[in-house]
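Morning!

This is the sequence you dropped in the shared folder:
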Amino acid sequence: MKIVILSVAVIVVLGAIVFLVKAVRVVQQGFVGVVTRFGEYKAIRNPGLTFIVPFIEVMKIVDVRETPRTGDRQQVITRDNVAVIVNATIFSQVIDVRLALFTNSDYLVSVDNLARTSVRAVFGSITLDEAFSQRERIGTLLQTQMEEATDKWGVRINRVEVLEITPPEQILQAMALQKQADQEKRAKVLASEGTQMAAVNVADGERQAAIKEAEGAQQSAILRAEGFRQATILEAEGRAQAVTLVYAAIKAQAPDPTLVAILQLDTLAKFAESDNTKLIIPAESAALLGAAQAIKSVMSDVPGLTPN
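The structure's back. Tokens below.
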């Protein structure tokens, strides 16, 4: 009897332990627990310690963090019929756990498949050049197109980043040649612009030098003219002062006609000493010359006076 009671007690204890193990659940941070009772949605349990009814309720853990999912490399055809290899990463996040679990059999697989079809559709609407130059716009188009379907699944597409766009080898070679031609063109343009700028600078320098030279010549001519003008003025002023002084001296001596005649005679004598072969005597000086001759003869008769 005691053995039976002991066995029952052991079974009860083991059952209690199993019940507690099945009932106690721990939900980690970044996850939530979805509880179903007999397969029907019951509640959502937040991170932390929680309890369920064993054998009646089942809790499934769902990751609600943002999850990056890099798809497989796939070949797509652009609008200009160029086949390229594309790979993209989709950053998705579950925002409605109930929709994610009960409206789609596997939302992760569905997001991957949707990403493949969206990549083919978006790249089919753009050219190869646009694909290389507008990656950000491509990511926005992929996100917009995918959100139309994922919103029904309780999944949000936060962003899409295009990792790889690889065209065929011949396209790469053609692009390399085009890039080389563009670089050579730019080099020639820069060289021609440099030559043009150098020529402009040289011409401008020569023009400035010519202007400076002309300005210098002008200033020099002005200074020479000014100097000549001042010299002429000073010379004229000197002559005027000399005439004034001579006139004042003569006037102060109150000369009589006889003295004037003698001075004229002396002046004519100086003229006669020059190398000129002709001497023209004014008419008014001829009379004075006769008077002077008479005075000279008178002075010669006076003893002790010898005329010059």
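Headline: The two ends are 196 Å apart (CA to CA).

More detail when I'm at my desk.
O.
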